[in-house]
Write the structure tokens for this entry.
Amino acid sequence: MARAVTTRRKAVTSVIAWTVATLIFFPILWIFVLSLKTEGDAIKTPLEILGSTWTLESYAVVQERSDYFKHFTNSVIVAVGSTLLGILVAVPAAWSMAFVPSKRTRGILMWMLSTKMLPAVGVLYPIYLLFIELGILDSRIGLVIVLMLINLPIIVWMLYTYFREIPAEILEAARMDGAGMRSELLYVLTPMAIPGIASTILLNVILAWNEAFWTLNLTAAKAAPLTAFIASYSSPEGLFYAKLSAASVMAIAPILVMGWFSQKQLVRGLTFGAVK
Amino acid sequence: MKHIQLKQVSKSFGDVEVIPALDLDIEDGEFVVFVGPSGCGKSTLLRLIAGLEDVTSGQVVINGKDATAIPPARRGLAMVFQSYALYPHMSVRKNIAFPLRMAGLDKADQARRVEEAAKVLNLTEYLDRRPGQLSGGQRQRVAIGRAIVREPTAFLFDEPLSNLDAALRVGMRLEISELHKRLATTMIYVTHDQVEAMTMADKIVVLQNGVIEQVGSPLELYRNPRNLFVAGFIGSPRMNLIKGAEAARHKADTIGIRPEHISISDKSGAWEGVVGLSEHLGSDTFFHISCPDFAEPLTVRASGELDLSYGSTVYLTPDLAHLHRFDEGGFRIA
């Protein structure tokens, strides 16, 4: 009897999981289907999925009209650059908070997290002015800095939870074994922290890649990454669903592929600390 | 020769004093066990000796030299942790070689000493595995291997067997004792298990709330516990403690009698009682017997052959030669 209940429960959870997964995946599938239709078919309601023709026309037009690779390069530079810069700042910060915590460590962490609760638009004006003043508006370096800053709390938090998981006894064992500060860092701590740092890098590359508010507001032509490339197709000329979809697919494809191959690492990164 | 000395060593965490100032001498080559209930400060004391915690006041002297300010890496001590604390990203070979690598030994010497240690600890075939691929007992052996390769002046063990199952624990207990006999190096061993303390120690240090209650050989502590705490802590099952009229008759506030020093008869004896639960271990049986005159049931150890039915009336006679007497303060009356 108990077994029957378990089987049924398994079936129910499977159905729920599949439904949720399908719901989440549906927009991506929809965009993909639309990108392969003509503009005329794409706005038809109801959409004829099987009846209408399939075409790569939108992709060709999008590539012709705007320079995909320029935006792609910008996205890569901004996402990877801001993440690496963030890691550089966050590793020592998380390190000291995890291994030499003080009375205020908790407070500092909460304060950092609280900056994420502020609506970004609230600081758009001052940052915009600062960017003009510093002459870094529509520049990649400006984007790298601002994306690093907005993701920094998350990077610090993630690394902090990773470092906290490294048992203090192992570090003490290293000390008893005669390791000085340098050897302890080099031979024991760093190798143990690398999986955590890798997951953090991965997640933050994705976050930075998808970031749309700052990238849209602080760039025009030169530094515009793929988010701006998508946005340029929801233009005042009217909506071109097929082209917009094609642009979107081209923008998300690289990160989707990367996410697919690093699934395991990513899931571990997101659930870290939750399961002991 | 005095090997490790604690002189008026105390430790506080913030406002909480976990170890009030204490003195302790550990002789060269001695196997010393710190034993006490959890939270008694035994691990903290060990960590003070290791240098993993700083003393609040007092001096830690090792080999006649003040080591209070020397970092753990340079005290010449090796430690085995409860969680084994192996380096998960290194093979067994690299784990054991780590202290040698830190000491700057050349590769050939490292390899030779790792092989030697592995042979002693039956780890030779596991040298290329990672700690995650080993069983609990094997991991503990690696931790011990890592400690012995560097030939420390003393070994510190922090509850090394408490993560192992009962059968393995007995085996490892013997292995560690044997290791001590062979190496003749000072060992300080922390445990909450009084059986480990009794079976392994040359000298037991009983701690409670950071205070040393008694220091002595296992049999000294068993025969002449200095106070009620030690009397109750050393010996299994624990000593029966009786207060009231019966104690007064022996001119004491509390009297203590161990389960093995009471004889049972179905005809006559000093105390009358009713048989409650019995625990059969095969060789021995422990009877819990309620006497109307005493607040708590007495535990009596009898031969495994003896069978008494639940609820039957029996008579108990204590062996007066082994009766312990304690005053109001809980101290032994000589």
Q: What stands out?
A: Chain B is about 25% helix and 30% strand.
